[in-house]
Design a protein that fits this description.
This protein is α+β, with helices and mostly antiparallel strands. The protein has 2 domains: about 90 residues, OB fold (Dihydrolipoamide Acetyltransferase, E2P), CATH 2.40.50; about 300 residues, BirA Bifunctional Protein, domain 2. Helix content is about 30%, strand content about 25%. It contains 13 helices and 16 strands. The strands form 3 sheets. Strands 6-10-11-16-15-14-13-12 form an 8-stranded mixed beta sheet. A 5-stranded mixed barrel has the order 1-2-3-5-4. A hairpin with a 4-residue loop joins β14 and β15. α4 packs across α6 and α4 crosses α13. It is elongated, with a radius of gyration of 26 Å. The structure holds 4-amino-1,4-dioxobutan-2-aminium adenosine-5'-monophosphate and magnesium ion (MG).
Length: about 425
């Protein structure tokens, strides 16, 4: 009779009645006459009390067999109890062991090294902290869909197996029948541009892959990216959409994940300040600022993580650095008519050391200039025929950006490394679990 089991999140409605709950033991305590079981089911935490004299001897006996992570079913009357987690407590009268758990459960209530925890990621996910992070991520994902849905964007799912290369970073390749080599998508953008010409305002939301040999706290080899693409938007419209979007996501997490952010001990005051407009600094000006601060950067170099940190420290919210040198950026960015050494693009840098969360640009809409850029980058022209068609048949001003989900969620949660905000991270040296 599964219908009589209640999820912990719904227990408040059952106060004063008897209910059954299933879950995993997280804590056990006994005085010899009274025993306490703290139970977790993913939706919440429940404390059950067993009084030896009030229960059948076999129930008391079963309690003695419990270990942490044993899966059990408990039945009893629910009482309001302000001191209990979740605000209710159960007086248990029945206890069933569903699945015992040997006492060598790898994750103990002590400090473990991160490699050990990652090796046991399938079990580490059961911790309160990981649950809080997963819930923030889920809220942010839902907010992303709501943001675009409310604004009339169409979600378009783009392929993961691709022939055309989007970004400069490393590629994962695989043999593809008689078609030669397929690459795991680094971006959905090129397809997003085709869809923008067809549907006007679109976004993609999918996994993307970078065979990057970088072992930093900001890099995964597989991460999730959200890429809107908007017909008739220019670079300024693009930045306005980005700041509205980022502010919306942060607000939503603050409003709906207060408990989770508290669990994560996140100081939310810097997040409260994330409201548009975000400061905008031209790349050329940024180089001047950095030189004054002692950086060795030269005009033409891409910004390193340290440069980004130096720029962000003067501001209390995310900032835009716009119009980078052409050589530092991808082939599809539109040449800046006012300074052809640069392209119409921006990076959005998060505060508190989280760095680039968005890369965006207006796209090159001139057929010949785009052909030149594809050649200059040494990209295989044949793979871009369809992409060039977008400039041949009714070319159009358009712009878009990519927001990295894990970097954004890590920043909102205040977790130092992005590997913690995806259930099963893929890193250079990690393919399991
Ligand atoms: O700046 P990127 O490379 O831009 C693009 O891929 C464009 N096609 C986006 C567009 O215009 N449609 O990547 C965008 C964002 C970065 O700002 C970062 O947040 C995230 O994706 N990102 C990564 N996140 C985790 N691990 C990595 N290795 C990442 N590489 C990029
Ligand atoms: Mg980038």
């Amino acid at each position: 009779m599964t219908s009589s089991f209640v999820r912990i999140e719904a227990l408040r409605a059952h106060v004063g009645r008897v209910a059954s709950v299933r879950g995993w033991v997280t804590h056990l305590r006994s005085s010899g006459k009274v025993a306490f079981i703290v139970l977790r089911d993913g939706t919440g935490v429940l404390q059950s009390v067993i009084v030896k004299n009030n229960v059948a001897p076999e129930v008391w006996e079963r309690f003695q067999q419990l270990t942490v992570e044993t899966s059990i079913a408990v039945t009893g009357e629910l009482r309001e109890d302000a001191r209990s987690p979740g605000g209710v407590e159960m007086s248990a009268v029945a206890l069933e062991i569903i699945g015992p758990s040997p006492t060598d459960y790898p994750i103990q209530p002590k400090e473990h090294g991160v490699d050990f925890l990652l090796d046991h990621r399938h079990l580490w996910l059961r911790s309160r902290r990981q649950r809080a992070i997963a819930r923030v991520r889920n809220e942010v994902e839902q907010a992303i869909h709501d943001f675009f849905y409310e604004r009339g964007f169409l979600r378009v799912d783009t392929p993961i197996l691709t022939a055309a290369i989007g970004e400069r970073s490393g590629l994962f390749a695989t043999e593809y029948f008689d078609e030669g080599t397929a690459f795991l998508a680094q971006t959905g953008q090129l397809y997003g541009e085709a869809a923008a010409a067809a549907f006007g305002k679109i976004y993609t939301f999918g996994p993307t892959f970078r065979a990057e040999k970088s072992k930093t706290r900001r890099h995964l080899t597989e991460f999730w990216m959200i890429e809107p693409e908007v017909a008739w938007n220019d670079s300024n419209d693009n930045m306005r959409l980005q700041e509205e979007f980022v502010a919306y996501l942060v607000r939503r997490a603050l409003d709906r994940c207060a408990e989770e952010l508290k669990e994560l001990e996140r100081d939310t005051s810097p997040l409260e300040r994330v409201v548009p407009p975000f400061p905008r600094i031209a790349y050329t000006e940024a180089v001047e600022i950095l030189k004054k601060k002692g950086s060795t950067i030269q005009w033409g170099d891409d910004l390193g993580a340290e440069d980004e940190a130096l720029l962000v420290e003067d501001h209390d919210r995310p900032i835009f650095i716009f119009n980078y040198p052409k050589e530092a950026k991808a082939f599809y960015m539109k040449e800046n008519p006012e300074d052809p050494r640069t392209v119409l693009c921006d990076d959005c840098l998060a505060p508190e050391g989280y760095g680039e969360i968005i890369g965006g640009s207006q796209r090159e809409d001139d057929y010949d200039k785009l052909v030149q850029r594809i050649k200059a980058e040494g990209l295989p022209m044949a793979a871009y025929g369809w992409y060039l068609d977008l400039r041949k048949y009714g070319t159009f001003t358009h712009a878009g950006f990519g927001l990295g989900l894990e970097r954004t969620v890590a920043w909102i949660c205040g977790t130092p490394h992005i590997r913690e905000v995806i259930a099963f991270p893929r890193l250079m040296n990690r393919l399991a679990p």
